Structures are given as C-alpha cells and as structure tokens.
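Residues determine shape. Next comes a sample protein:
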Amino acid sequence: VDLVSATTGDLVRELASTERWTRLKAKQVLGARDSKQVRIALQKWLGGDGGKDEQNLLEAVMLMEWLNVPDEELLLALLASSDYRGRAYAARVAGRWGMRLENAHDILEVAARDPHPRVRMEAVLACAEIPQARSVLIAASVAEGSRDRWIDYAFSQAVHHLKAHWMPVFRRGELDFGDRGKGLF
C-alpha cells in the first residue's frame, strides 16, 4: 500500500498490520491529516472488524495520542483490556492527557486498584502529571494492594511532585487520606 496516497480509512486499517514499520508510517501520515476525519475513520474501523482485537484498540489509543486528541471512550475500553500491558498504557496516557479528560481521576482510580503491579505503578506516575490535590489521594490508594519497591518509589516521587497542590489543602483540613496510604506515609 502506498501510504502517502492511501485514503484515511486505508491508513487506519494499516494499524492492524503485523509490521511495526507499517503501523508507524500509517500514524505519521495520519498525523498530517484532519484529525476529525481520522477520528471518524477510526471509529468506523473499531465499530467493524477492527474493534474485535485488543491490539487494534491499543493502536487506536496510540494514534489518538500521536494526534494529541484525547479520547476518553477509547481509554476506558483499553483500561478494560485483559492484557495488563494495555491497561498500564491506558493509565500512562490518562496522565498525559490529564486535565483534558473529563474523568481522568476516575480512570486513574480504577487503574490504581488494578491487580497487576505495573498498572498500579503507571497509575501512580500518571497521578503526578495531574496537578490537583485529588491526585495524591489516588496515588495513595495503591496501599490497598500489594506493593513493590518500584511502586513505593513512584509513590514517593508523586507525593513530592504534587506537594505544592496537596499540602496546603491538607493543612487546611480539606484533604482526608482516610485509610488510603496506610503504610506508605
């Protein structure tokens, strides 16, 4: 397929290619196209055969990230993936898109309680990218699951990075950790 002269729909279908180079080049060409048209073609593809494969869903989120166009619906679908790597990537992207998502904290709350440690670690790191007091509460919810040194390190970095946002609210008594963070502080 000649990617430069391909239609937007053809390029979106190339996201299912087994060749990494083809997927990358398709994203690059789609990046120069009208994002609204790309989104329409992507939704059509995912609504058909493309939406039956979790790898295609991952590629769709990657494309929207490439275009810098947040898509909460795609992110939530990826967060429901059976593959922990897809869920971890969804948490990472939620942090990158942060305040441009309507429910970023809700997405990260789910990821912070995921059974897989990589997903929880990515949720903590993503919280550090959203400069609000609630972010530290979500990061602290990792204490409710098993932890390792990587999660503990990510948490310490998130707490430090968000300190200017949560500490004043905490001092005023407007932020209550409750049982969150038990054993972390």
Remarks:
- The mean pLDDT is 90.
